[in-house]
Write a structure and sequence with these properties.
The protein is mainly alpha-helical. It is built from three helices and no strands.
């Protein structure tokens, strides 16, 4: 019996791809933090990223900084 390879999870880019795209962009942290708060669609495919307006600003920044590390 053959094992199937795991398919990538739907719903957007992995943090390594995000980090790579924004590596040399000095304004990326602020823009991505705003996207987390307001949501978005189209940057990484057709699935929307729902807004997270209830997250505290410090938590949004922590999340975005982590994603930008590419880990």
């Amino acid at each position: 019996r053959r094992r199937r390879r795991a398919e990538p999870a739907p719903g957007g880019a992995v943090s390594a791809g995000i980090a790579s795209r924004y590596r040399s962009d000095n304004g990326a942290e602020a823009r991505l933090a705003e996207k987390v708060k307001t949501g978005g669609q189209g940057s990484w495919g057709s699935l929307p990223m729902p807004p997270q307006p209830d997250l505290q600003e410090k938590d949004v920044r922590t999340l975005v900084r982590w994603v930008l590390t590419g880990q």
